[in-house]
Amino acid sequence: MRLMATGTLTGPQVTRRRQRQNEWARSLIGDILALLVGLGSCYSFTLIGDIHLSEIILIPSLALLLAVHSNRLQLRKRRLGIIVVLLLAWLFSQVITDIYRLTPLKDWIRGQANILFFLMDLIGLAILLKGNMRRQMVFLFGLAIGVTLSAKLQPGLYQGEADALKFAYCWSILYLVAVASSYFYGQGRYAIVGLLMIGDIGFNILFNFRTIVLTMFVSACLVLPIIPERIGRVRILPPARTRARVLVTVGITLIAGTMIGKTMTLLAASGALGHEAQQKNEVQTTAGWGILIGGRPEILVSSRAVIDSPILGHGSWAKDPKYHKMLVDIETEYGIKVPQGSESRYGGLIPAHSHLMSAWVDAGILGGIFWIYILVSTVKSLLKASMSQLPLKPAYISLLVLFLWDIMFSPFGGLRRVTVGFMIVLICDVLDPDSPGRQIIAQTLSRAQIPLHPRNLGRVSPRY
Asked: Where are the beta strands (DSSP E) in 302-413?
């Protein structure tokens, strides 16, 4: 009788067991979906514009995610709600601009679909990943593998092995370093974290990839105690976990980063980093204003386009030959060397090599306001994360520092709709008052002891 009683479960126990089994199954399905969305970066299709396999997986799943977990959005109470409203305002401005500019139908569809797909990607990723740090790393791992595979599955997207190395393999390594360093950071093995980040810096120095070098250097300084507290009796850094300390650290880091950039320029000029790096350095430094003009002269042209039409933009996939002529004139004036047939570099589009400037050029001021808000939110989340002991601090810091660069100096579209959506999820996890990341930060700043072992990452949030 005792054995039978022990082996028999009561009604409430059976219910709880089934609930745990259902939660485990839904958690597993969510993890698999996150991995598949990341892996979907391996292939893209061209319909009206480029659409990646990640979106083909994520967007059809959006209806199911909304039906099962619609409570996870709570747009009225969270920063994500403000972002969605601003994104809809950007879309509205694009529609009005296209009507006013009489944008051709094909460009009209491409431009507005780019924003609409971004909105759906963001909502899907928010439901799937927000508040679940373990699943965020599953997605990032899948993204790293997918980007690597893309160079093999679609080599035509890259102009040779050097281009694939820069735009596929180096980014994959950065994502893998972010995942691995977060794992070891959670275990308190900071020396391994430092070795991983320094190793990535050294690898990218060899190939003269300055963006990743400076990103990882700034991240390492914010994550690890690289800058000494004191030199002799002189205190260098303010007290720990204060905003002043973060600002001083960033200032020192930027100065040191500038010195590293100058050193890389000298190495490239001497030929120590290879002939290709030497040629690239000549292109970027022949301009009177150095790397800014030599590396991103498009920002001057897009600024002029914004000044010409600040409220309403120039339309989806805006084209105007006078801005191409302006770019060529700037490059000629500053002695910037450009390849033959340079007029076809942007396919006739107004040059705007920036998330912020391209949105403002195409859609007008509401597109600019959206990205300015995202830029300010990214800075705030970096400050908060830098003062904390988030288990995923290396990943959060390195990705958000990189995101700052992308907002200002990288084009938007394609796979970036997915990766930017992921970045915004991280920002909301840090800044939303009820998010697990913000709760950890609040506890850290009040000097509470936070368990940082990786096994706790999936338990930070009750969500699954």
From this structure: none
CA–CA dist 229, 249 (Å, integer)? 10
176 or 289, which is more confident: 176
- What is the model's pLDDT at position 22? 61
**pTM for the full predicted model:** 0.84
Tell which residue, 425, 436, 428, 432, has the closest CA to residue 458. Answer: 436
Contact 209, 166 (CB under 8 A): yes
For residue 312, give every residue at least 6 positions away whose Cβ sits within 8 Å of its Cβ, in sequence order, or none. 93, 96, 97, 100, 101, 364
Q: Report the DSSP beta bridge partners of residue 45.
A: 51
Closest C-alpha to 170, from 194, 203, 216 = 203
Torsion of CA 83, 86, 88, 92, to 10 degrees: -170
Q: Count the neighbouring beta carbons within 10 Å of the beta carbon of residue 247.
A: 13
User: What's the CA gap between 340 and 338, in Å, rounded?
Assistant: 7
Residue 404 vs residue 387, higher pLDDT: 404
Cβ atoms 186, 454 nearer than 8 A: yes
> Per-domain residue ranges for the chain?
2-459
How many other CB atoms are there within 10 angstroms of residue 464's CB atom?
17
- Tell me which residue of 444, 439, 426, 454 sits closest to 388, measured CA to CA: 444
- Distance CA(318)–CA(315), nearest Å, equals 5
Instruction: Using alpha carbons, select from 36, 183, 59, 114 the residue that is nearest to residue 363.
Output: 114
CA dihedral (286, 289, 292, 298) positive or negative: negative
Nearest to 193 by CA among 406, 356, 398: 398
C-alpha span between 349 and 364 (Å, rounded): 16
Per-position b or e across 93-108, b if 16+ CB within 10 A of its CB: bbbbbbeebebeeebb
Which residues are CB-neighbours of 97 under 8 A, at least 6 positions away?
Answer: 103, 312, 313, 314, 315, 316, 362, 363, 364
What per-residue confidence (pLDDT) applies to 335?
A: 64
In whole angstroms, give the CA distance from residue 454 to residue 330: 52
Inform me whether the pLDDT recorded for 194 exceeds 70. Answer: yes
Give the pLDDT score at 6.
44
- Does residue 242 surpass a pLDDT of 80? no
CA 302 to chain centre: 22
Least confident of 32-36, 98-102, 387-391, 448-452: 448-452
pLDDT > 70 in the chain, percent? 72
DSSP class of residue 165 equals: I
**For the segment 47-91, what is each residue's pLDDT rounded down to a tens digit?**
777 899 999 999 999 888 887 776 666 666 678 889 999 999 999
Tell me how far apart the alpha carbons of residues 338 and 329 are, in angstroms, rounded to a whole number. 12
